[in-house]
Design goal:
single chain, 11 strands, alpha/beta
């Protein structure tokens, strides 16, 4: 009997130790899980610091506008991207309504333009047409970067519109002029604009406004669909296809082809975009490679993995040499016809 009793005691002791171990492990796992949950969910989310996140879509009592319809509208174009970002076309927004919403917030739009060398000849048409069509009724501050401040024409600015001219060095290659914009924009936003503007748009100088460009274009990150490729398959896009470049996009990838002649968004988003593109351009330079379409190639790579929250149709960047397209009901902004070999320093 003593031997049998000892055996039973040993079995019970072993069973008790095993049970205690399971209880400990279970308790410890619950404790770790709880700690992880607290780490992920208990930390308050960062407070949004851009207007687009904070803005309430309010209208004034008694404000009259045409009733929107769920059944009638543009049937010849797509007005929503696969990630549910709006694509802005004529007939997809009410300009009076959307202006009334944004004007309540007294927003300011910084706008950058680069005019070096012979490109200063395009300034007069751009600025005069902008004053007729670009964010009329809103606060706009143009920042013009040029190597020839004396060549900047006198253009009468509208109410709450102003122009600041900044001198920059001349460059021998138009490619360097094009690619150098990202670094200048990055520094301008970080050093000056963060507390002076709500949004920023970056525009090419060899352009002209022909129609409204207004508050319908505002968003966190805004890309403009290139007029040459809006109806092309992605395999026809002129992405950078060399894996050695930081702008590389593989065949079978890509959403739309975006132009670098116009893009914009909130200060935070465009600072992030320009910083990334500048870093990627520098990395390519160190590896002695230049992307096929310079900063535009890097912009398209950025937009592939950082989806724009709003897309502007080719109405917002056409080309005067393009043939007409049935989907384009209005040309709002366009590259003007020019002789590249004559205006580009090393064309």
């Amino acid at each position: 009997m003593p031997l049998q009793a000892n055996l039973i005691f040993i079995i019970l002791l072993f069973f008790g130790m095993a049970l205690s171990g399971l209880i400990y492990l279970s308790t410890n796992q619950r404790s770790c899980s709880q700690e992880l949950i607290e780490q992920v969910f208990a930390t308050p989310a960062a407070k949004p610091n851009n207007l687009e996140s904070q803005r309430s879509l309010r209208t004034s009592p008694g404000f009259q506008y045409k009733q929107p319809s769920l059944l009638a509208g543009r049937a010849d174009v797509v007005s929503l991207s696969p990630w549910l970002a709006p694509i802005i076309w004529e007939g997809t927004f009410n300009p009076t309504l959307i202006d009334s919403i944004y004007k309540q917030h007294n927003i300011s739009i910084a706008t950058t333009v680069f005019a070096l060398g012979k490109y200063t000849r395009f300034l007069k048409d751009l600025l005069e047409s902008a004053e007729e069509h670009y964010f009329v009724g809103f606060r706009v501050h143009y920042y013009l970067f040029t190597d020839q401040p004396e060549a900047v024409p006198e253009v009468k600015m509208g109410e709450n519109h102003r122009l600041t001219v900044r001198k920059v060095p001349s460059l021998d290659r138009w490619q360097d002029i094009s690619m150098g914009r990202m670094e200048i924009l990055e520094k301008l936003i970080a050093n000056e604009l963060m507390h002076e503007a709500n949004y920023i748009f970056c525009l090419d100088v060899d352009t002209k406004f022909y129609g409204r460009w207004g508050s319908e274009t505002l968003g966190n990150l805004v890309g403009v669909i290139h007029p040459w490729f809006f109806d092309y398959p992605r395999d026809s896009f002129t992405y950078e296809r060399r894996p050695e470049s930081k702008a590389f996009i593989a065949a079978g990838e890509g959403d739309y082809y975006y132009t670098a002649a116009a893009f914009g968004g909130t200060l935070e988003e465009i600072h992030r975009l320009t910083k990334t593109c500048r870093e990627q351009l520098n990395a390519d330079h160190e590896n002695s490679i230049e992307a096929i379409w310079h900063e535009e190639s890097h912009l398209n790579k950025y937009f592939l993995y950082n989806k724009p929250t709003k897309l502007l149709s080719p109405e917002y960047l056409w080309r005067d040499i393009n043939i007409s397209a049935g989907q384009i009901k209005i040309i709002r902004f366009s590259h003007v016809a020019k002789n590249n070999a004559e205006v580009r320093p090393n064309a």
